[in-house]
Amino acid sequence: MVEQWDARGAGRVEHALRRSAGQARLFEPVRRHDLLSLGIDLALLPLIRLIGNEADVEALEACCRPRSTSRSR
How far apart are CA 6 and CA 67, in angstroms? Predict the structure, then answer.
């Protein structure tokens, strides 16, 4: 099983999250290693760091929801 996410959608959400700067960031105190150990994609870490509230989480989830695909060997 391979998970893929929409990089274009992530870019749109990143712009919106940056505009909402000024509020507290939920994952600011969490270490990078801890986020990676939860299975967060390295490429998504900058977006995760911008999350400030539940609305941000919902926006990110809607645009970056993984699409599962099967890979045959």
Answer: 9
Rg (CA), the chain: 13
- pLDDT tens track of the chain, all 73 residues? 345 556 666 667 777 777 776 678 888 899 999 999 998 888 888 888 888 888 888 877 776 665 555 555 4
Instruction: Centre a 10 Å sphere on the Cβ of residue 60 and count the other Cβ atoms it contains.
Output: 22
DSSP state of 67: E
Neighbours of 6 (CB within 10 A): 15
pTM: 0.64
* Nearest-angstrom CA–CA distance, 57 and 35: 15
